[in-house]
Amino acid sequence: MSEHDLRVDITTGGWSVCTISHVLRKTPRSTLALIALVSMLAVSYRLHAQGSGATIAGVVTDPSGAVIPNAQISVKNTATGVVTNVVTNSSGRYSAPNLIPGPYTVTASVKGFKTEERSGIVLHVGQQQVLNITLQVGQVAQTVSVTGAPPAVQLASATVVAR
After folding, report:
1. At 138, which helix (H) or strand (E)?
2. For the segment 36-56, what is each residue's pLDDT rounded down to a tens digit?
3. Which residues contact 60 (CB under 8 A, 6 or more apart)?
4. Which of 17, 123, 138, 146 could bridge to 54 as Cys pair (CB 3.0-4.6 Å)?
5. Which residues pair with 134 in a beta bridge?
């Protein structure tokens, strides 16, 4: 038996010996083509998922720590003017994925609370920035502006960047 022998018989659960070349000769070309296509698609999907886009995500709460669902979150790239709008879910969570690297301003608003604006946020390639927001009770027309980047926290690694 050579190093290219395969020793599994799936149909009976027992052991048998057949060579890989024997399997390739007995498998229809269309099946092999389908396996190759599915493999290439799986690889390209994984590579796309590891793209260059960054993400801003977090939880919106009130001063008591209660989550705020249905808050409007606006993520604006201040260099390009491109705006991404998302809404918090029932757990107060939001996520704005696939953002191009650059400077951003994030605005959160919901009826019964002051609008909060965070500026000076700079995203880098592949960064996953956590930006939790606490909204103060008040009118939407009132805006609380916070300038300066939040601490850089990488969700994908244990790295903390100090500025």
Report:
1. none
2. 666 666 655 545 445 679 999
3. 67, 68, 71, 73, 88, 92, 94, 108, 110, 132, 133, 134, 135
4. 123
5. 61
Residue 135: burial class (beta carbons within 10 Å; 0-12, 13-18, 19+)? buried
Say if residue 114 is in the same domain as residue 67.
yes
* CATH code, domain carrying 136: 2.60.40.1120
Q: Does residue 76 share a domain with residue 146? A: yes
pLDDT tens figures, 88-100: 999 999 999 999 9
Give the predicted TM-score (pTM) of the model.
Answer: 0.59
Beta strands in 81-158 (DSSP E): 83-87, 93-99, 102-109, 115-123, 128-130, 133-134, 143-147, 152-153
Helix (H) / strand (E) element for 1: namely: none
| Residues of the domain holding 65 | 54-161
What total of structural domains would you count in the chain?
A: 2
**Rounded mean pLDDT of 9-28?**
53
Judgement on whether residues 45 and 59 belong to the same structural domain of the protein: no
Per the CB < 8 A criterion, the answer to whether 123 and 104 are in contact is yes
Question: Which tokens belong to 53?
Answer: 């886009």
**Long-range contacts, 151-155 (Cβ 8 Å, 24+):** 152/127, 153/129, 154/127, 154/128, 155/128, 155/130
